[in-house]
Amino acid sequence: MEQLDKLEAHFKRLSHFQHLAAICGWDQATMMPDGGNHARADAMAELALYCHQQMTQPELGDWFADVDEKSRHLSATQKASVAEMKRQWQQASVLPDTLVKAKSLAGAKCEHAWRQQRQDNDWDGFAKNLKEVVALAREEAHIRADQKLCAPYDALLDLYEPGMTAERIDEVFGALKQWLPETIQAVVDKQAQQPVITPKGPFPQAQQKALGEHVMKQLGFSFEYGRLDISTHPFCGGVPTDVRITTRYDEQDFTSALMGVIHETGHARYEQGLPQDLAGLPVGQARSMGVHESQSLFFEMQLARSAPFATLICQQAKQAFNRQDDPAFQVENLHRVLTEVSPGYIRVDADEVTYPAHIMLRYDIERDLISGKMEVDHIPERWDTAMQQYLGLSTAGNYKNGCMQDIHWTDGSFGYFPTYTLGALYAAQLMQAMRQQLDVDGIIASGNLSPIFDWLSQHIWQRASTTSTDNLLKDATGETLNPAHFREYIQGRYL
Amino acid sequence: MEQLDKLEAHFKRLSHFQHLAAICGWDQATMMPDGGNHARADAMAELALYCHQQMTQPELGDWFADVDEKSRHLSATQKASVAEMKRQWQQASVLPDTLVKAKSLAGAKCEHAWRQQRQDNDWDGFAKNLKEVVALAREEAHIRADQKLCAPYDALLDLYEPGMTAERIDEVFGALKQWLPETIQAVVDKQAQQPVITPKGPFPQAQQKALGEHVMKQLGFSFEYGRLDISTHPFCGGVPTDVRITTRYDEQDFTSALMGVIHETGHARYEQGLPQDLAGLPVGQARSMGVHESQSLFFEMQLARSAPFATLICQQAKQAFNRQDDPAFQVENLHRVLTEVSPGYIRVDADEVTYPAHIMLRYDIERDLISGKMEVDHIPERWDTAMQQYLGLSTAGNYKNGCMQDIHWTDGSFGYFPTYTLGALYAAQLMQAMRQQLDVDGIIASGNLSPIFDWLSQHIWQRASTTSTDNLLKDATGETLNPAHFREYIQGRYL
Ligand SMILES: [Zn+2]
Ligand SMILES: [Zn+2]
To answer: Which residues does UniProt mark as catalytic (chains A, B) (predicted)?
Structure first.
């Protein structure tokens, strides 16, 4: 169909520019000298503007209308392709330019000031800027909600996790809240009885890198189609044929970089495993942020922190650092190190048991901020209450390690936080289903993990965005999101 | 003036896209895994097409016409800015799309086949493709010549060395031919009497890199605005605020990478030294390929292979490789190593005394190919004759080390070769003028070379393309190109 061809050609052309943006973005974080930043930022902004213009070209509307009229002639994949193109087009087109600009200005101002305000524990200064950001996010949410005929917060969720609603998250997180605080306490009490020997550095960076690359290969990362580098904030970037993952090395603690590398390898394999015949099309992209995180957490949590994988890591780490006789490198001890649970203030440092607590409290707050049920001024109090309730920690007056610790809200990315925990729930559910079909522990112990990756490839990676997250889960596991699997998994591993 | 503002805004916007192309091009040569090549090539081609479209937008013609009418109100820099924008616009616009496409196809075909044909010494196969390339280059030259009202080959020269003509090169190279072959012979005879101890490897890559970075700093390269990396074919890329130079390391010979790094540092300082207030405009770019090469050769030949600089290198190399007592690292010996002259087949391996011979023979051939005075079939014979005449070497039947050694002609880049030797002549002339004002040897010996760089910055770097090469030379040295300085320099250093 002519108009469909036009649409797909248009989005494929756009993907070439997005390719260049991805590589230059990676370069900015890993390679660029400081002095290059100003000109680079200008160049990237020019490219972003051009991509936005291309994404919102007026003729697209006509093409979509034409394709919709004849949609009964389309195959299922074609229908999905149209739907995904339309989703990106509508998301890009619906906001008036004035709002986009105001959002960008307020976000940049808030984020810039936050870097200092966080250090100074200056809540009042931060709150002033955040109010502007929240006001614009509410405006954005309303406009998007009018277009999608849904609730305002759901319209923001849809940017990161299409199809997800606050109603569904309330239900899922509600179940979590029932058992998680008690479980955390029980795990902490249990682990207090089990002594852990912390591996002592130094672990030279070159050896850590070699170990990381070794494990990446074992996890099927293709260095023919990707790289590992260093950046301050680890990420997975690039394009599916050239996936760039990064880490940072702590010479006193090799596990942080290693687990980070394994996490990003999960993201990377999803990207490397996307179907080539849909390359350059929205339908050929990863399904959602939550599904993306399910893959990184599957690799990091379900696989790499399991007992049989700890045995593999143990052998390799002993060799890499020449610690054959170090008691900290005995397999049982190392597994305990990899599964230590410890309630703390900082989300990014949290283990998998306490992590959902950090997310649930942020979700409750941002949902009510967007709906208008609460205001910025009440964030610290609510934060403190939830931290006490979930983790037994007070953040009263401690803004920098409380509600000012994350960058997400500073530029108005409301709706993003829940995807971290949705990813953890998806991962547990996928593993549960996989175990029905595969002897997962035996496969890990064998060192050849291909059957595991084949399963993920078939059920997740190769399907890209050809169907909804609900369908993806149903086809892979027999049911849509069921948070009971996460409970079973956590209590099984830790209690 | 409104139209001038529009023009400059247009070219500055374009420079942002060229920035991204430069970084992604660097990435392709230094960082990209092999598997990324296909998608990257597509993305880069899309960007190149977009840049071409932007460069040839129809409204530019009206804007230029308008500006020309009011040009008496423009400052000298504004006039130069208009002239340089116009030059780029005309160069991009004059060729019909069909010819651009045919050129690109024939060039890609010829270059691709050449990679194997060169290995196979397959002249007949190569000649067949090259004929197509030459036919299209002739067509291109005629179209460009009609636009510029000049001779066809001069129109190609103008792409690389604006203002230069075959008539002028004939004159300059004619003078060179008078004395160079005899001088080469005399230098070879003289050096045969002076034993040289070749430094023996291994020279570990990490130590070579540290030495290179040390020398780069001494040469004023700013790592705040640039990087050093590795690529198969060394180059200087990136953008003025983020200059990316590359090298390759031979663990048996540290001088090749070191001298290569110094050469690229000359290119880099020119880029880093361009005027910031003209950034993003054609008038703010380097003057020409020849002037660019004059800076790299000034650094590599005039500075780094001089006796006082050899003393600096000697100290640093001894330390870097821990060779305090190695007789190969005695300063006199090292200087001999750095100034060894040896006629050979391969241009890129040539020393500065024999290098012009390689260029002159290529120039004679390409000039006559474009004018139609000779045909592709006669290249090998003419090559052999010239090699025997200039360097006493026969290339009869040895195509791969003769007329098939370079990539330049495969994609039709005729007019480029002369800029290498023009650069060497400019460099010698600049040094001669500098010596009238500065105690160059004393400055080098002091280790603080700033006065030399300040001189280059004032006379070359800061002037960018605000005036012609002729004027640049006249203002810096009191005369336009005078090849006598190169003769004096070569005979002074080597005889
Ligand atoms: Zn992640
Ligand atoms: Zn050069």
So the answer is: 264
